[in-house]
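Work Package 4 report. The design task specified in the project plan requires that, given a folded chain encoded as structure tokens, an amino acid be chosen for each position. We show below one input record used in the internal validation round.
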């Protein structure tokens, strides 16, 4: 871990990247959840990965509705599909924040997510300056937004990353660890977050878990990890209760 962290802005700008592929029906809500954060300033970058639906139109509409709630907004519309990590790589050069979040375009951050996680991250870093990201539990929601159950992440243990994927995507990070670990392997199409966290941790960074459900993780038939179909089927069978997410997320793989 050699990167020297510097406060690039006096007001601790937060950059949020939303990679999107054919989630036009969800991406507007994801953008609105960023605009409604109690934290500021926020710089939002949406990378549309050559969607074939109305995603670009929905992003532009959501940007217009956001108005001046965000410090800046940027849409990067790709002409060829490069996958989620490819979309992230295209965004990295535009990341200017001191903090950084990747939000999947079908998920939603609760209004206090950024303020709460940044405060907890800074508190954790007073104890251990190798801590570069903080992640939380979540509320599992249906395609139309109804609450299903709670999704629980596992307490931080870097050794577990070899066997499980347990750190969710919208963890709040210092931007430097994410940037220094890139570019990410675009051949990885499933278990993309597992690949990203492994790269970051290999550089000497650690995480911290906050056991509060501060974001909404949408369950639907098209979740890349396959978790949505599994959870929806379980709920329909009457299998309720908390779910340990490491049992649902795949490890990094080039399989499609």
């Amino acid at each position: 871990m050699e990167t020297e962290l510097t406060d690039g802005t006096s007001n601790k700008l937060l950059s949020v990247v939303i990679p999107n592929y054919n989630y036009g029906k969800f991406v507007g809500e994801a953008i609105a959840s960023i605009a409604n954060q109690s934290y500021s300033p926020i710089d939002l970058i949406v990378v549309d990965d050559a969607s074939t639906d109305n995603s670009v139109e929905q992003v532009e509409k959501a940007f217009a509705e956001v108005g001046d709630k965000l410090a800046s907004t940027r849409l990067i519309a790709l002409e060829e599909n490069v996958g989620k990590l490819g979309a992230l790589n295209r965004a990295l050069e535009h990341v200017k924040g001191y903090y950084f979040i990747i939000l999947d375009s079908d998920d939603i951050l609760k209004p206090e997510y950024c303020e709460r996680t940044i405060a907890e991250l800074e508190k954790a870093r007073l104890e251990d300056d190798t801590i570069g990201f903080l992640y939380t539990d979540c509320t599992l929601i249906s395609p139309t937004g109804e609450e299903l159950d709670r999704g629980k992440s596992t307490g931080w243990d870097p050794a577990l990353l070899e066997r499980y994927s347990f750190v969710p995507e919208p963890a709040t990070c210092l931007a430097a660890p994410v940037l220094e670990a890139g570019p990410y392997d675009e051949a990885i199409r499933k278990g993309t977050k597992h690949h990203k966290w492994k790269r970051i941790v290999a550089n000497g960074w650690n995480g911290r878990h906050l056991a509060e459900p501060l974001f909404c993780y949408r369950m639907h038939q098209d979740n890349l990890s396959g978790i949505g179909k599994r959870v929806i089927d379980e709920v329909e069978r009457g299998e309720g209760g908390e779910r340990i997410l490491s049992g649902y997320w795949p490890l990094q793989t080039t399989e499609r």
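The longest strand covers residues 206-218. Validation will be extended to a larger panel in the next phase.
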